[in-house]
Amino acid sequence: MQIWEDIEKIQPVATRTLVNSIKKNRISHAYLFQGDRGTGKQEMALLLAKYLFCQNQQGANPCNNCINCQRIDSGNHPDMHWIEPDGASIKIEQVRNLQKEFTYSGMESSRKVYIIKDADTLTVNAANRLLKFLEEPNVETTAMMLTENGHAILSTIRSRCQIIDLQPLPPGVLQERLQQEDMSETDAKLLSTLTNSMTEALELAQDDWFAGARKIVIQWVEMYTTQPEDIYTFVHQNWIPHFKDREGQERGLDLLILGFKDILNQHIYTDANTILLSNDPSKSEKRLITFSQSQLLTILHQILMAKRKLKANVQPTLVIEQLALQIQR
């Protein structure tokens, strides 16, 4: 998304708030962008950063062509710093390094911008250290924090930020937009269920890793109706090698939730169409025989618990092994 008008189509309220601030020259020294994954947090933060550094601003929009805009697009602007979790959290050492940067003048101008991804993963010490920056803002410094869980941010930090709430994009709207981009109805339906972001959906549609993830999850669910005795081996030979980092593991569990929701919906609605699994009548019948409605509700709860364990930094292999065995019972 290169201009505010693009983002306004999916985040009208948040976009108008930022554009009005730009037009009135009242840009805050700190922003907290909070919303679900795929709602445009990163796109909005980068667009604001480009505007701040742009050499040829066009109203509230950056030109997207000058050297500064191009550097930000490529992640190479010397006065824009990106911070994300080192492992499971953002540590105090990372914030100390950030604090040092705050004391220096910009390399090419007096302005500096910092974007902190997954700000809710700041350790307590790191968050308290960051708070000191926000209490004494430099007028030429803009900090932007991105989070899916705004309530996990220290109240003292929240109070020093302008909070930008991003709303989920209705799946039906996104599905329609994806189909307008020549995506099949099946793929558009699946991707609009997984993300609220047009950009992310289009990227996933072209991602070989995601295609592999989708195939593995479908095979795992179907194996419970055909070869349940081989589930444990399948998980070790296919799931664990493919889903290596936390983001990938969470994506895999999101797909697994959709798979079992498909079966539950077919129990409840005889004419229900699936989102992930095949609509083949013989396969559907086997799934309905294998899983009762009460079992499916339990399984969905177990998958959600597995997601919470991953966020709590429990060893991923152990989490998936336990989940596979729980579903099999």
UniProtKB/TrEMBL annotation:
Where along the sequence do coiled-coil regions lie?
none
- As recorded in UniProt, its EC number(s) are 2.7.7.7
> What GO MF terms are annotated?
DNA-directed DNA polymerase activity
- Which Pfam families has this protein been placed in? DNA_pol3_delta2 (PF13177)
| InterPro entries named among the record's database cross-references | DNA_pol_HolB, DNA_Rep/Repair_Clamp_Loader, P-loop_NTPase
Q: Which UniProt keywords apply?
A: Nucleotidyltransferase, Transferase
SUPFAM superfamilies listed in its UniProt record: P-loop containing nucleoside triphosphate hydrolases
Q: What's this protein's name? A: DNA polymerase III subunit delta
Annotated gene: holB
